[in-house]
Structure formats: C-alpha cells, structure tokens
Design brief:
Elements lengths: L13 H13 L6 H14 L3 E5 L2 H11 L7 E5 L4 H9 L3 E5 L1 E3 L2 E4 L12 E7 L8 H11 L2 E5 L7 E2 L2 E2 L6 E5 L12 E5 L2 H10 L8 H5 L19 H32 L5 E2 L14 E5 L4 H13 L25 H9 E4 L7 H15 L7
Parallel strand pairs: 2-3, 2-6, 6-7, 7-10
Antiparallel strand pairs: 1-11, 4-5, 8-9, 10-11, 12-13, 13-14
Pyridoxal-5'-phosphate binds next to α3 and α4.
Amino acid sequence: MEFKIPLFKLNFDEAEEKAVMDTIRSKWISTGPRCAEFEKQFSAALQVKHAVSLSNCTTALHLAFKLTGVGAGDEVICPSMTFVASINAIRYVDAVPVFCDIAGPEDMNIDAGKIESLITEKTRAILVVHFAGFPCDMDRIMAIAKKHDLRVIEDACHGPLSVYHGKKLGTIGDVGCFSFFSNKNISTGEGGMLVTNNDEYADRARLLRSHGMTTMSYQRASGHATTYDVVDFGYNYRMNDILAALGIEQLKKLPGDLEQRVAVRKAYEQAFADVEGVFVPFANTPEFVSNYIFPIVLKNSDATKRDEVRNALHARGIQTSVHYPAAHRFSIYKSDRHELPATEYVTDNEITLPMYSSLTNEEVGFIVSTLKDILGENNHSN
Ligand SMILES: *Cc1c(COP(=O)(O)O)cnc(C)c1O
C-alpha cells in the first residue's frame, strides 16, 4: 500500500544527481578527494578536530570500542532503547552490554541517575544514544565517567548538529558516531562518520578502516606513495567518493532542513497540547535539536492497544514505526536478567509519527486529528 503520508521523505534534488554524475565523470569513485572533502566539511560543521568517513555507523561504533581499548570481558553500560546495531557493536569486541533503563516516557534517554549502580570492576565504557537527537544528560554522564575512569562513546546517529550546552552532540565524549543510512538526517544510502578530538584515535581509525595499511589506493594512484606496510589488524570499513559526494550536498542542506523540522515539531506540539492520551517526550528542550524522528508514547496503554492504534493510522494512510523494539527482549539478549520497567513501558507504547522537512502544517493537523479520532478524543471539539 502507498501511504498518503509516509514516515520519511528523502531531501534529494538535482544537486545530488549532479554530484553523483560529476563523481562518476571524474573517474575516481572509491575513497578519495570527495571523502576527504566530506570529512573536512563535517568536522567544521561539528567544530571537532577529526572526522573519519566510514562504511556505516555500525563500523564506526566497532572502531570506537577498539580505539578506546574496550575488549574481551569488559562491560559497557548502554541503553536497551536503541537500534540493535549499537549493542551488536559492543559484542564485536567481545565486551558485554549492561543495559541501563531510560528515564521514562517523557525522557527516552538513558537515566543518568541509574548508571552508577551498574558499575563494577569490569566496567570500561558508557555508550550513550541521543534519542531522536535529544541530548542525554552529558554533564552528569561525563562526571560519572571521570570519577570511575570510563570512556564515553556517543551514538549520535540521530543528532547531527544537535547542541548540548553549546557543544555539538558527538563531540562531548571520547568518540562520536554518525550514520548516513537512507532515513537519517544526512542520507547517502549507506555511510558513517567517526568524530573525535583525540589525534591518536583519529590516526588509528584511518588505519583500521583500510586493513591497517599505511597508504590508500588514491595516494598511490596520485603518485604520493608507491608501496604500503600493514601496521595494525584492520578491516575494510571505507566510504566511497560517490557516497561522499551525496554527503557533501546533504550536509549543505542540513541546517535548512533541520530548521524546517523544528517548525514541524512545533506544529505537532501545538496540535498535541490538548490531547490527553499521549506523552510527547522531550518537551521544552532548550537548545537546537535535529528532530530525527517524532516519537509519542500512549498513556494507560499496552502493546496490543498500541498496535491497534498503529493499524488504524495505517488504514487512514499514515505510516508509523516503532523506535525501538527494546534490544534486551530480542532472542539473543533475553536470556540475561534485566530490570528495565521504563524501557519496557515505552517500547510497548511508543509510536513514531511522520517527520521530514517538507511535512506541512495541514498534514500534521490531519495526523493528530486522525489520532484523536482513533483515541476517541475528538468528541469535544465539534
Ligand atoms: C541507524 C542507527 C545505527 C546504525 O547505523 P548504520 O549506518 O545503519 O550502521 C546505529 N545506532 C542508531 C541509534 C541508529 O539510529
């Protein structure tokens, strides 16, 4: 079925078409000058020293744990309320995810107040995920990390250009990771970026993304090198120049796209002001936020009711999603004991509504009024 209002729309036009054609015509399509340019623009936009382009965010997270020395048997405190890639990346280095609950339906980020009780001698790092681009309580988390000598990895996939106390998300912890998968704020189909202010981490990330080799094909093809050594045990985690060309165009559009998303969120907040049956998380966030998605959480509800509401929205042409099925309930993680009541309530009752820059006020009005109908809340208004 074609939805009247999809969850997401790609913000692509002739600029992306031209960028790809120009790259193809340049005859250099693998990692090369466009990747370098995208990295330069990205680090400038985030005011961070280094940006390393990668194949996706999952590989960025894997490298983040390697760079920060997280290894076999180490524990990483993380939310369960995230895309499973965040958790799988912890396992790639044979470390153990230790799930921490979220604050609640009005703040879907990791509950900083619960982190310290989960720290053991084995804890090495905290993985934060800035949900929908809304910042975690980074002052408190960085203070805990300092006190217990822990590294902080930011999964900032949802938050390019989101701000926390004047700093861009992804630049506050030791390493920040971004995704350019199709439905992210910057879309290149697949792609990722690792950012850090640590020179050693950046150098090693560049080695590890390309088999631990000291030079890459582009340097050899352009006569800057003729051979290479292999000095570390690496991977093929490179981005390519066709995707980087898309990324450069998308990054140019990002500030304008996000401004429009701020207006879409405002329209939603106004329309939801008199709706009794839903929480709108992250109300009154003071600083600039990317608004990657627009989540709501049903009150006095359960998973069955939530699914009925979603089905009714779909029948009226409105696409929705769930962010996320909680990681700790997936078959491969559920054998461990977990006490995550807020995560479980929210994952059972969350609905992600359409969010993209070209979503109109009329469409937002239609979505919220349809939802009110479904929840039986339209009786008073007419
Ligand atoms: C999209 C996403 C990822 C994975 O990114 P890929 O680029 O697809 O590997 C990881 N974490 C979060 C929170 C995401 O939204």
